[in-house]
Amino acid sequence: MSAEALRDRLTELAASGQGDPRALVGEFRRGEVLVPVVDGSLLSAESGGIRWLFAFTEVAALEGFAAARGEAAPGWVPVFGARLLDQVIPAIDGPVGIAVDAGSPTGFVLPPVAGIVPDAVAVDVDSKESAA
Description:
The chain has 5 helices and 7 strands. It has helices at residues 3-16, 21-30, 59-68, 81-88, 127-131; strands at 32-38, 41-42, 44-47, 50-55, 75-80, 96-100, 108-110. The chain has a 4-stranded mixed β-sheet, with no helix packed on it. A 3-stranded antiparallel β-sheet has the order 2-1-5. The mean pLDDT is 87.
């Protein structure tokens, strides 16, 4: 799914008031998002002990986020949501979630919990359980 189609689907889900979290995660996994890169690293921020990677469904949302921070829009790479959740997050030390379209009316977060990220890195799964 293209970034534009993902944005449209997420907007539709938000506007419908349905807010089915499983549908949202499924659409994100299948879709391609834009991940900002600064100095060769993925743009992220830490809050409450969780590292949040930023991902955007359109260039305009990324540019608006940068402008709100008083910065020029960074470069970005297109990445499928499944790759972020299944490969990138487990490669980063500590709990990591994804902030999608941060600062926009349709923004949302995907926290590092079971059902979103692999159990081995989910904060709500006991490490003994995930080793079994």
